[in-house]
Amino acid sequence: MSLKIYFIRHGETPYSQLGNYCGIIDPDLTPEGHAMAKAFGEAYKTLPWKAVYCSPMKRTIATARPLCEAIGLEMQLRDGLKEINYGAWEDKTPAEVKAEYGDDYMHWLAEPAWNPPTGGETAVQIASRASLVITEIELRFGCCSVAC
Question: Taking a C-beta distance cutoff of 8 angstroms, is the pair 87, 119 a contact?
């Protein structure tokens, strides 16, 4: 049997409503985001879950909680699953970032793997830390269904 990993994005936050950059800022979910999380947990609780791994951010914990409660599993929190650190761009709109950090913004849009947001992290850095968690999961489960 092959390893099956499900990647789930957190529910709506005030920042996703506004369209502002939000990586290391730690907002909770909106009421709609909590409803999304509850609906997800209800819809997917019948899958054969072996573990649920998530970022230690409020929004990801709140998103995973309904599923974990429905299936009786404890969340496995891992820093490697945190979202991108947007650095100086945190809490700014794309228009503000473009106006204040134009060159960095254009480089990031063109090649985010190697060009970070101003003071933030590259896609390569994110992939590096996240891959450590994936390796941990593979070593632990090898052939079972896992949630991230």
Answer: yes
